[in-house]
Write a structure and sequence with these properties.
The protein contains nine helices and ten strands. It is of the alpha/beta class. It has a six-stranded mixed sheet, sandwiched between helices. Strands 2-1-4-5 form a four-stranded antiparallel sheet, with helices on one face.
Length: 247
């Protein structure tokens, strides 16, 4: 079953992940609309990466349910993987392959015919302005370029949803701004962007944000509404209020 254009592209209902006696994700429920830029925030250990791994079919939930693009993630993880793109915080490209070799390799992984992958690769390199890097090993190009390349490859097969785990970590402010311009362009074409970030100023760029605290969703709304609700000047202040230890 595929969901209609009107139905949420991501649906989580009481999604839970336990590791022994420890509950990493505690019965979270939320929806993400098609074409939305959805920020998924939280401190280290809050459960956001574990939740993302369940949504992408990389980890099976202990209980609860998640649907992505109308597909039950636990029941059909491989089908879900065909409909999504994923960019890991740890940078998922092969550094000993050239830029073009990486593009063709991932094109094959995503099921693109060889000719289509080659054409898509040439277009991608031209769009990014990476002609000078096309035959260079990924290990030899600057981090900012690698991050933009990784994101573009995650979109190579035109997925319904792209999951980005701390995509701008370690890059300079100019590259971060350019990266967000690419995110907006992807959303304008209808691709849903699900992004985790620890940069609170980047939370302001999202249509809505969810803030995870101790495995639970402590707040979920637009940045403007959250700032109003918490009487905060910016999202950093909202985050501090939600994560401040209780007396």
């Amino acid at each position: 079953m595929q969901n209609s254009p009107q139905s949420p592209i991501i649906e989580a209902s009481k999604l839970t992940k336990q590791f022994g006696a420890f509950t990493a994700v505690d019965a979270i429920s939320f929806e993400v609309e098609r074409g939305e830029i959805f920020g998924f925030l939280g401190a280290n250990g809050a459960g956001k990466t574990t939740a993302m791994r369940m949504l992408t079919g990389l980890s099976r939930p202990t209980s609860g349910q998640a649907r992505v693009a109308g597909i039950d993630v636990a029941a059909h993880p491989e089908k879900v993987k065909q409909r999504i793109g994923y960019m890991s915080q740890k940078f998922s490209l092969y550094e000993d392959l050239t830029v073009m070799e990486n593009i063709r390799f991932y094109g094959g992984i995503y099921g693109l015919p060889r000719k289509q992958a080659r054409q898509a690769g040439s277009q991608l390199i031209e769009q990014l302005g990476m002609e000078a890097f096309a035959r260079k090993q990924v290990s030899g190009i600057p981090l900012g370029w690698r991050q933009k390349l990784s994101f573009s490859i995650a979109l190579l097969h035109q997925p319904d949803v792209v999951f980005l785990d701390e995509p701008t970590g370690g890059v300079d402010p100019v590259t971060r701004r350019q990266f967000w311009e690419m995110i907006y362009q992807a959303a304008e074409t209808g691709t849903t962007v699900f992004v985790t970030t620890h940069y609170m100023d980047e939370a302001e760029y999202c249509g809505r944000v969810s803030i995870m605290v101790d495995g639970q969703i402590a707040a979920l709304d637009t940045p403007d509404r959250l700032k109003s609700e918490f009487q905060a000047a910016n999202m950093h202040e909202v985050f501090l209020q939600l994560t401040r230890p209780k007396p």
